[in-house]
Amino acid sequence: MNEVKKIVYFSVVVAEKDIKREKSKAGELRRSRWWHQKCAKGVCFYCGRRVGHSSLTMDHVVPLVRGGRSIKNNLVPACKECNNKKKYLLPMEWEEYLKGRKE
Could you tell me the pTM of the whole model? Predict the structure, then answer.
């Protein structure tokens, strides 16, 4: 019996093998010159704080479990704090969260 593990999150079904493939692609991009240049300023994409390039993490704007892919226009440098808080939120959900924090 060949069972495929799937993750269901907010009505999006993504096969575990697809997530593994996309994480592998992200790992390759993390080692690329493109990513090193993107992180060179050391600034978080979300909060704008300067944290230093070594403190930035790679974040998928549209998370993998929500159907996002590991492509250049879906990857941004984020501080660990923002990346941990954003988790699996889509951009519009994250914006609502940030607005709620400021009010």
Answer: 0.81
